[in-house]
Amino acid sequence: MNLHERIETLRHRHDELQSAINTLSKNYTSEIEVHDLKKKKLAIKDEIAQLTAQL
Hints:
With about 55 residues, this protein is an all-alpha fold. The chain has helices at about 5-25, 30-55. The protein has one domain.
């Protein structure tokens, strides 16, 4: 997988996590679960930034 494909895959996963966070927040789910998803989303955002810098 080249860098562009990896970045697109990460962006898609980032969007999926945002949707999950929105759904869980609306349904008053555990804050711990929402927090964990937000941490994963941030890690993906950081990886996207690192890969983009390599282009």
